[in-house]
Write a structure and sequence with these properties.
- The complex is a heterodimer of chains A (115) and B (114).
- With 115 residues, chain A is an all-beta fold.
- In chain A, 0% of the residues lie in helices and 55% in strands.
- The radius of gyration of chain A is 13 Å and the shape is globular.
- Chain A starts with a strand and ends with a strand.
- Chain B has 114 residues and is mainly β.
- Chain B contains no helices and 12 strands.
- Chain B has strands spanning 3-6, 10-14, 19-21, 23-26, 31-38, 45-50, 56-58, 64-68, 73-78, 87-95, 103-104, 108-113.
- Chain B starts with a strand and ends with a strand.
- The chains are: A mainly beta (115), B mainly beta (114).
Amino acid sequence: DAGVIQSPRHEVTEMGQEVTLRCKPISGHNSLFWYRQTMMRGLELLIYFNNNVPIDDSGMPEDRFSAKMPNASFSTLKIQPSEPRDSAVYFCASSHPGTPLGGYTFGSGTRLTVV
Amino acid sequence: AQSVSQHNHHVILSEAASLELGCNYSYGGTVNLFWYVQYPGQHLQLLLKYFSGDPLVKGIKGFEAEFIKSKFSFNLRKPSVQWSDTAEYFCAVTANQAGTALIFGKGTTLSVSS
């Protein structure tokens, strides 16, 4: 089991550019979560999906942020246009049907720096 | 909606000292509780979790936590810390139903000096 796979591990981009973060959940997990981690705000839930359907996107900070899950094995988080205050570590997590008993598994994160 | 409060932002201890990190949650229904650890530069790893039954749960690396329902608390403890326990610790809560999201506290940074 390769775990939750996120790419890229690091991303440096200029303000105004589009950024796309990618996540591959564990096979068989039907829920997927996107979190953002900053020093000031800690770990914030941005959005999560059950069976590829967005359930709660109230944590998405602005319209510049969007997330998709076109199939059970892939999700993207897009920021367009990016701003310096978007700099953070973005984590993806997935969970098994029957969670919370099944637990949540986190990816290694994408460290985004917007200059 | 659920929320989690961690009392200590930064805790500094010497090796062999005892540890207790506070966590309180807010939610009107049945919850499941977790502690995660994040070592420098790494992703979140599960330390322990509580779903039901014995309110004293034991996790990896000698950590334990006690669920006190009347106090809405789930404090993390370790009798004797090691330098390798230096990390950030997150308490998290989720509603007791499938397909719900973890809500995290802001975290506590633990620094252990040798």
